[in-house]
Amino acid sequence: MDTNETFGKTTGQNPLTRQLFAGLVSHDGSKWTQHRRIIAPAFNTERVKAWIPEIATATSSMMDNWEKHRDLKCEFEVDVDREFRVFTADVTSIVAFGSNYEEAKHIFDLQDKQAALVTLATNTSRLQVIINSIIKIQMNRRRWKVEKEIRESLRRLIEKKEIECKDSKNLLALMLAAGKADEPEFEMEEIIEECKTFCFAGRQTTANMLAWAMFLLAFHQEWQHKAREEVRRGICPTADDLANLKIVSLRTKFY
Length: 255
Known about the structure:
The mean pLDDT is 77. α4 runs antiparallel to α9 (188-219). The chain has 11 helices and no strands. It has helices at residues 15-18, 29-39, 45-70, 80-97, 101-122, 126-131, 133-161, 171-179, 188-219, 221-233, 246-254. By secondary structure, the chain is mainly α.
């Protein structure tokens, strides 16, 4: 049953938020159906399972860095919010481009800058806008400049990864294949929009969820101990074993 016309979006996207993300989340009707049909296979169960070894490697790398910070101390502090943003950026790069954090770091940094500029513009009162019209123009120019840099950086990364993605099944590969079909369904600008959206939304939401989960586990240490013991009972769990981690799964669904 196709209900995309029945439950369509009733309002247009805010032009400010469009500088952060657009693509699938902003489309409606037949265009939404077309984009979803192409993008959805990138996230089927078997494909997600195939990413787990790389995600596990990224996780181990993060934990090893935490151990270095510990330096034989009984207690030490880690900025988990920042750490999780780097970690989710690494995973996002793997899923979207078959890449890594270092290759896409410049794009993520620009998106953080753009998010700060959009937040500042959104929180500016009408009176301030009228009084500070010159400042508003300067802010607009800064956002447009950052938007241009993000798009150009994504274009370069896409062109760099185009050959490597030829036999891959990541998000970028699926969109490139759709763009090279006999009847192309994706143009380069649409691919850039989808990559921009996935890089921003996928990283930010997951990083926030992980940071919040870490906070709650620290606050409710009895659940922290239960989850730790459950994981320790398994020996190198595979993707298929994750469903058997009842407490860990419960925590993830709750958060």
